[in-house]
């Protein structure tokens, strides 16, 4: 990677690296659009939810709740809880954007979705502990985030306005899980990360019945604890082993 | 109208969640334990979503071979592990699911 890439080059690289993920995102956005209409949400509101909330899994849950006639407060709380994991992404990228002006922080925060984090976060991890290999890395983040945002709006519009009739038998919603599988595996570089993923997965299944999708938060906590525990045990076994992967 | 207001509130809360640490840590050094823990956030959260998507059917845990999504997900995981390619992983998983659904 060049030491001082031009902002435009960084931006375009971010766009490019986000592209493969769109294969999973685009069908998901379309299906969301279809589900929203099916739940009785009008087209403008369905489209607006994609830019106001801008978080796929919570939007899916929202359509279910609207269909069931859930009270507004439950709807708000549920979306909030399903999206709580984004606070962890926020903490993860915070050290890398701390030097930026407020307007950049606001824009990048708005764009901080699962898929944008997957791309921008792994870029920061790749750069390692070096303070700032490129002064324009935030353009890479912006490129990845805007690419995803555009794809999400367009695919929602495709589902909402074109009224595409996708048969349920195509099971296109399965691409969500497949996209996350493709994102997770390259991050499992060591036993501790593997332990985090496995224990979070198992706990998530066991805790599925918890109200308000709280199972996801509980599972994430269990996974992080397991990862830290394994890292600590291994660190003791082999001193001088990996220490603090990508601290800024 | 209630729905629009609810979505606006949910959108603000989601934005606030994403902004939280970015706004806070602009001034403060993050605690070491937090930084160490953050490495495990993506594998933990994404894997939790994947496991519930493929291992839970109609609210019940289903680990049987008749759960085609689980079988297809395992195959996709192998492809992801071997190739580290997002497109190939999705293609393999969808193909496996469609073949299983068509065959049975």
Number of helices of chain A: 11
Give a count of the beta strands of chain B, DSSP E runs of length 2 or more: 2
Q: How would you state the average pLDDT of chain B, rounded?
A: 88
For the largest sheet of chain B, list the strands in their spatial order.
Answer: 1-2
Q: Describe the sheet with the most strands of chain B.
A: 2 strands, antiparallel
Rg of chain B is 20 Å
Portion in beta strands of chain B: under 5%
Order of helices and strands of chain B: HHHEEHH
The protein's oligomeric status is: heterodimer
Portion of residues in helices of chain A? Answer: over 70%
Mean pLDDT of chain A: 84
Q: What is the approximate shape of chain B?
A: extended
Structural class by helix and strand composition of chain A:
mainly alpha
Please tally the helical runs of chain B, counting DSSP H or I stretches of 4 or more residues.
5
Structural class of chain B: mainly alpha
As a percent range, the share of helical residues of chain B equals over 70%
| Overall geometry of chain A | globular
| Proportion of strand residues of chain A | under 5%
Residue ranges of chain A: pLDDT <50 for 5 or more in a row? 240-248
- Poorly predicted regions of chain B are none
Could you characterize the architecture of this molecule?
The complex is a heterodimer of chains A (248) and B (104). With 248 residues, chain A is mostly helical. Helix content of chain A is 71%, strand content 0%. Chain A is built from eleven helices and no strands. Chain A has helices at residues 7-38, 43-52, 56-67, 72-82, 85-97, 102-110, 114-127, 137-161, 174-184, 191-206, 214-237. Chain A is globular, with a radius of gyration of 19 Å. In chain B, strand 1 (56-57) and strand 2 form a beta hairpin. The model of chain B has no long low-confidence stretch (mean pLDDT 88). Chain B has 104 residues and is mostly helical. Chain B has a two-stranded antiparallel sheet. Chain B has helices at residues 2-24, 32-38, 41-55, 68-83, 86-103, and strands spanning 56-57, 60-61. The relative contact order of chain B is 0.06. The radius of gyration of chain B is 20 Å and the shape is extended. Chain B is built from five helices and two strands. At the A-B interface, helix 1, helix 2, helix 3, helix 4 and helix 5 of A face helix 1, helix 2, helix 3, helix 4 and helix 5 of B.
């Amino acid at each position: 990677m060049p030491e001082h890439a031009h902002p435009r080059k960084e931006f375009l690289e971010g766009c490019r690296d986000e592209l493969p993920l769109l294969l999973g995102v685009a069908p998901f956005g379309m299906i969301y659009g279809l589900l929203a209409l099916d739940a009785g949400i009008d087209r403008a509101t369905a489209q607006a939810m994609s830019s106001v909330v801008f978080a796929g899994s919570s939007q899916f849950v929202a359509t279910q709740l609207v269909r069931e006639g859930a009270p507004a407060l439950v709807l708000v709380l549920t979306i909030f809880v399903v999206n709580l994991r984004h606070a962890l992404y926020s903490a993860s990228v915070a050290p890398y954007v701390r030097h930026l002006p407020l307007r950049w922080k606001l824009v990048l925060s708005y764009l901080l979705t699962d898929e944008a984090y997957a791309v921008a976060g792994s870029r920061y991890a790749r750069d390692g502990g070096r303070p700032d290999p490129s002064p324009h890395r935030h353009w890479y983040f912006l490129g990845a985030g805007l690419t995803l945002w555009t794809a999400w709006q367009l695919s929602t519009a495709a589902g909402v306005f074109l009224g595409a009739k996708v048969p349920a038998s195509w099971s296109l919603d399965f691409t969500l899980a497949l996209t996350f599988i493709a994102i997770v595996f390259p991050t499992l570089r060591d036993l501790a990360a593997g332990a985090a993923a496995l224990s979070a997965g198992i706990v998530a299944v066991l805790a599925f019945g918890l109200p308000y999708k709280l199972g996801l938060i509980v599972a994430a906590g269990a996974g992080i604890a397991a990862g830290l525990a394994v890292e600590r045990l291994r660190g003791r076994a082999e001193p001088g082993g990996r220490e603090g992967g990508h601290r800024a | 109208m209630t729905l629009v207001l609810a979505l606006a509130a949910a959108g603000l809360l989601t934005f606030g969640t994403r902004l939280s640490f970015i706004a806070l840590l602009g001034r403060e050094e993050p605690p070491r334990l937090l930084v160490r823990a953050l490495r495990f956030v993506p594998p933990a959260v994404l894997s939790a979503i994947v496991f519930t998507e493929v291992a839970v059917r109609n609210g019940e845990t289903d680990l049987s071979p008749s759960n085609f999504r689980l079988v297809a997900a395992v195959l996709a995981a192998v492809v992801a592990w071997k190739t580290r390619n997002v497109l190939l992983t999705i293609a393999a998983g969808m193909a496996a699911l469609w073949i299983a659904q068509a065959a049975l």
